[in-house]
Structure formats: structure tokens, C-alpha cells
Amino acid sequence: MELARKLEILSAAAKYDVSCSSSGAPSRGSLGQAGLGNTTGMGICHSFTPDGRCISLLKVLLTNFCVYDCSYCINRRSSDVPRARFKAEELTQLALDFYRRNYIEGLFLSSGIIRSADYTMEQLTRVARSLREEHLFRGYIHLKTIPDADPALIAEAGRYADRLSVNIELPTEASITRLAPEKKVVTIKRTMGHIRSHIEERQGERRAPRFAPAGQSTQMIVGADETDDHTILNTAETLYGAYHLKRVYYSAFSPIPAASSLLPHQAPPLLREHRLYQADFLVRSYGFSIKEILPAPGNLALDIDPKLAWALNNRAQFPVNLNTAEEWLIARVPGIGVRNAKRIVALRRQRRVCFDDLIRMHCQMKKLTPFIQTSDYFPRRDSVSSEVLRQSMVKQQLPLFPFGVV
Amino acid sequence: MYAPRVNSFETWLAAASTLIAAEAAPPLVDWGDTDGIESLFAASHAATPSASTPLDLPESLRQRLEEACCYLGKERWSLPYRVLWRCLHDDWAALLPGDADGSPFARRERAVRGAAHAMKGFLRFQERPTNTHSPRFVAWYEPPHDVLQAVARHFAERMGNNTWLIATPLGSANWDGKRLAFGPPLSKPAQNEDLIEALWLDYYRSTFNPERLNPGLMQAHLPGEQQRNLPEGRLIPALISEAQLGQSRQSRAPLPSIAKNATCANGREARLSLGNELENCRRCSLWEHATYPVGGSGPINARVIIVGEQADDHDDLIGEPFSGELGRFLESLLNAAGVAREEVYLTHAVKHFRFESIQLQRRYRAPTPAHINACHYWLEQELAQVPALAIVALGRSAAQAVLQTEVPLPMGEAPLVMPLAEKRVFVTWHPAYAQKTANPQARTAAQAHIVASLRHAWQLATSLQH
Known about the structure:
The complex is a heterodimer.
Chain A: H1 3-12, E1 47-48, E2 54-55, E3 57-61, H2 88-100, E4 106-110, H3 117-134, E5 140-144, H4 151-160, E6 163-165, H5 173-179, H6 185-204, E7 216-222, H7 229-243, E8 247-252, H8 270-286, H9 290-293, H10 306-313, E9 320-321, H11 327-330, H12 338-350, H13 355-360, H14 365-368, E10 372-373, H15 386-394
Parallel strand pairs in A: 3-4, 4-5, 5-6, 6-7, 7-8, 9-10
Antiparallel strand pairs in A: 1-2
Helix pairs in contact in A: 2-3, 3-4, 4-6, 7-8
Chain B: H1 9-21, H2 38-41, H3 59-69, H4 78-88, H5 102-122, E1 126-127, E2 137-140, H6 148-158, E3 164-168, E4 171-175, E5 180-183, H7 195-207, H8 215-221, H9 224-229, H10 236-248, H11 275-279, E6 304-310, H12 313-318, H13 325-336, E7 344-350, E8 355-358, E9 361-364, H14 369-385, E10 390-394, H15 395-403, E11 416-420, E12 423-428, H16 431-436, H17 440-465
Helix pairs in contact in B: 5-6, 14-15
């Protein structure tokens, strides 16, 4: 098969993996040396496709032949799609050529399961090893980890990859059993546990071999089953805590050609995925807990963002006086982010914070006014009901703009 | 009135040093940059006051000024001078984003950083045939700010010893495999399509998911002028309209029957003495967020059983009891008691780790009586399978689990021994308490008590068995 055709098949097969991040790798470079590539810790987007997502890595499957039959997956055994397989040399050459032209930051390599988990993992690792050792490639490598593979193979993969990831696939065990009959939650989690242990060993011992310095991540499909956001976020919170993941990616179930009848007929709104990312971000960067964001079973509000929803449900915490409140509390005000909270605290060491300062910092003024006090601004407390505020805010919500494209 | 003319950060800094020494307040200085055009072409020979010693600035301030000076636009040099003047007169608010100068200053830094970042991402090299002269890779790019120097260093790190040239309307950078050199502006090189670019376009087309079409979001990240510079830019309109068409006739075919009995690669598992049954335990809800159920480990004919409270963070990751830091501490206590770890059977009263997620960390939570009771099913089997006559219960939960009754913790130094049929249960402190409790005397006493209990249990077990 022609290389272009293989590339077409194997990149189309990989596009349901949403992560394309190239961040978190240690600083390294190739200044004046043989070989190629650098990383700085900051990811770089090299292009954007009309779905609004960035291209940072060459994201492909090694092969889309697969012995598994996960009903949400386009590459499942019973799916009628064209199949292809890269030769390792073809793929390394392609990655290097793309890299030299500055199309990509590196490689994201995944694969269908062929023969066995161990065999597949070996094939993936071979490509990474060849890039690192034969071609002295110092760019970014993200390897998908096959859950059932031998821990020794995973240990080897971690030596070459910047990031490893194992997909949890679905938020509950029941759903995995129903939709991905050959996969088991425990093996997925155990693989994550192995990876965490390896990463921590490396942190404790400077001379230990390098192991996935950009950490591990996972992906959860949203909307392929009935699970609500409350369960999804609790699963994510547990995964973050148990395996020290860098990121949980949420992928709104994307209807695939010739889909299984076990799947819903409608894709979930991308807005739901977006709200999950927002909630996830509040937990990772703002110190919110899932209990605060979503105290009871159910879904996140679609009409307003989770931070505003929290503020409207907790009016007793407001208004926050920006000249006296602690930084973490200021960051909880709708319309003020972590960065602006820092700036406000820095500014008030010099002088009193006034209303115009917030305009200059480009805070979202319409959102924040009911929730703050400054040296020259004192809204009447609780004069407007949360329901009325909500109605007025809904009209001003920003258009869909997901976090974390890099 | 002063009218310095500068064209780079270095010349600006030299002029600013002189002006500061002359105590020239910002309103008295005309940098000739009010309309943002001459700054590009300013000649450095224009009237400047005579040179004096350059300013000795804190490095962080120098860096911020240097970055802001890369900004191309109105008041390119005046604003940094105002900020510098205020800082040197102890008005550091000039650097804060809420300040009237600090706000545009911070915006400039962001714009410059953004421009450099975009150039790192969106610049494209063309490869020239290897038989022509170097450089082998050439690129043309029009950055909105003067970021070529910073970006050239990035590409020197990136490209190894491949030779390359980047041309911009303001200047060029050339890497000959050893050194980076900056030169005059060069004209845009001719475009030539090649095989690898064609592959890249294939990739771009296939990695796009038309089901998620969101042109507005793409536009926000990749504005029109960037799209025009990229080879894939010309694919975008067609991809968008095809996706819009496709959405209206999306259909779903019925599923071909699912073949059963697929090869399930699931070999390595459960080496637990309690077998696969524990693996699938659903007696309480703790399994749901766990990695492993942690069964006991040790010889099946051990003389002493040591029962802890519950699996901890580390145990959960690998499925072994006392496998982490706490396990090492227990081992040191066992050593002090003259007992070898390999000769005792170690287990927990509760086989799964109970925790709550706080700030994305798993924090220990004590098991409730309900968890202990649910898990007693397993402990009972272990106590029946391992014929040890001495049992050491570490902590209140373990004692409760073993004895099935409320037990007081030991007072004083003497071991607390309770009967359980023909067996003897030594109730002592949990090693986590003995390791971490704040009061150093309580810590020492608890450690001594654990060691004494272990020693007595071992002596009892060996004497009974002889």
C-alpha cells in the first residue's frame, strides 16, 4: 500500500484520541549536535484543524488491525473499515521529515491490538527506541500504553517516551463491561499504578533511568453511555489522586461510521464536554473539590459555566472584598482567573484596588460585578436573586472555547 | 527637550542610561515613535545626549524591558522609558498590570511572547535538494513584532546540525551547523511543493474530525493571516464545507453481529492466597476506586499473623500489604523484635484502601465498622487458613476486626493479650501512630510497645509449637 494511503487510514483512525499535548517534557536540545529536536516544557501548536483542535504531534496508529471489539471504537474487530499497518522505518522517517519542516513537535503513537498486548507494546516501543537511539531524536514522544502488556515492556516504553497514557475509556466499570467486553477496569488501573510507581522511583533516585518525564494522562469518552457528570467527575478525581495523572481528557462521543447498536444515536453536545473541562480545570487549578462543584448526582449546567454556577449557589460567600480577601477566594470570583487574582494581590501591596483596575486587567466585568467589593464599589448585598442573575448572565456567556488545547 | 533615535534594545538602553543620568523626565523626551512607523527605520545617528555609564538594572527588570522593546507599534520606546523612569524613582506600581503604564506594558510583553510562540509553531521550513549549497532548510515568516532573535535560538536548539535560514521583513537568521548569524532582510524564497508537504496535507485532512466542526474556535487560534502562510491553509474552506454537508446526511448502519470469545489478553493477575474471589469482592463500595484488593502475604504455615488496619496508597498500587514506607517502618520494628519479615503472615483488616480526594491527592480515611465487618469475611478465612497461634493486631481497627468486639488500646508498657479460642491476640498500636504522632514520648512508648508485642507473640508461637 502506498504511504499516503496508509497515513490517511492510520491518522483518521487515531483522531478520536483528543490529547495532542506536547508540554511537560524536560528542557533538552540539539544545539550543534548530531540528531534533531528540542523540548522546553511548553507545548507548541503547529496548526489547527477546522474542529478547533490543535496539531502538535503526528498522531497515528501503528496499525488499525485490532482483535478487540469495543463498540465505541471505529477500529474494532467487527468494523468494516480499511486496514493498514506502518513499517517502523516508514513511520520514523515520516516523523523526522515532518519534524524538520516544523510541522510537528513529535510523535503520538497508539495502536490497535494485534496478536497480543505484549507484541503490540513491543512494536510501539520499537518505533520510539529507533527514534531515540538510531536517529537521536530529542523531540516529544507520547506512547499509548497497552493495559495488559508486561510491566517490563512498559518500563522500557517509559525510557523513550515523554508521556505515557492508558485510556480509562468509560467512566464506570459497568459501561466498560458492556461496551468494551475485552477490557477490564482493573487492568487499566493497574497499568496506571505501575506507571505512577515508575515515575516516583525516578523522582526519588536521580541516577535511575529516565521515565516518562511528562507524566501520564488518560481519556474518558463522554456520552457513549448514560453516566452523569457527577460520576464522571468523581471517577476523574479518583484517577488524578490515585495515579497522579497530569490530565484527564474528556472526549464527547463522536458518532462513528457503522456504529454499534449499543451506542446512543445522538452525539452529546460538545458543550457538555466543554463544561466537564471547565469543572476539571477548577479542580486542578482553583482548589475546588468535585463536592463543591456538583454536590449531588446529575449533570453540570449547560447554560452557565461551573464557576458561576457555584458562585450563584453560594451567595453567602459574596461579595468578596478584593482589598482584604485571600488570593484563593478572589480566584473563586466569577470573571476573575488565577492570574488576575495574583495580580490583584500584587497590586494591593502597592495601593488600594479600585474598580477601574479590574477593567485594565481585562476581568470579565459583567460577570463579576455582583460578587465583589473594591475601594470604590460596594454593591448592595443579595439585592438580586440568584435566579435573576443567572438569567441575565446566560445571555452573556462566552461562545464555546475549550480549555487546554495545548 | 531630548530627541534620541534608537533602533534596538541595546541602543535604547544606552540612550535611556544617558537620559536618566541627565534627569530627563519622560515628558521631556521625544523618542520619535508616536505613530509607530519610524521605530522600524530609525537611524541611530540621530541626536542623543552624550553617552554615560550604562544603567545597572536588576536582571529581571532588564529582561522585562528587553521583551517589551521587541514590540512594534506606537510608543515602542517611550512606554518602556516611562516604566523605567518610574521604577528608578521607586514607583514599582509601574510594572503592575492594574497600573495605567503597567497595563499596556504587560500587554506588550504578552503580545511579544505570543508572537514568538506563534512563530515557533507556524513557521514552515522548505527543504532544498541536498545537492545544492547550504542552508538545506529555508523559511519565510512575517512576525508582527521583533522576535527573530529569540526565535532563532529556539530553532538552533531544534534543528541540530541541519543548516537553515529564516528570512523576515526585518532581518534574517542563518545557522550554518555551528553558529547563529543575523543578517539583513531577505526577499521571500520561491515556494515549491514536494512529496513531504503532500503527505502533510494528507495528514491534516485525515486528522480533522468533521463531526466536531467548529470553525470559530479554529479561527480564534489560527487567524486568517496565519492560515494564509501555512500550506494547509488552502485546504480549510473545502474541509469546512464538506463537513457541513456531511453532517446533514450522517447515518448509522446496524451492527454486524458481535463475535464472542475474543482473545482476552489477561494473563498476569491475582497471586493472592484468597484467589480470584477477593479480586471480585463487592462486599462494600471500596472496590470501586481501588487498583488492587490487598490480600495477605507470607508463608501459609506462618507462626505469627500480623494484622494491620487497611491497605494504604502504596499497597493499593501494587497489591501487597505493608509494601511502602509504612511497611519499611514495620520491618524495622520486626527487626528490633528479632523477627524476620519473611516468616510472618502480614495482612490488613480492610483489603481496599479507603481515602478521600483532597486537592487531587488521596488522603487516608479510617475504615468504618461497616467496612471492617464487610471485610471480616476475608480475614476469617485467612485466620482459618494460616494456623498461627499468635496474632498481632496493630491498632484499634485491627483488634476490632480480629476479636469482633470493642477493645481498649494498651495502657503502659506490658503487652495486652486477649484470648481468641485457643489463639492469643496481642493488641498494640498501629505503626503509623508510632511513627507519626506528634508527642515524641508517646512515639517512643508506642514503638516500644509494638516491638515488645511482636517479640512476645513470636516467643509464644515458637514455644507452643515446640
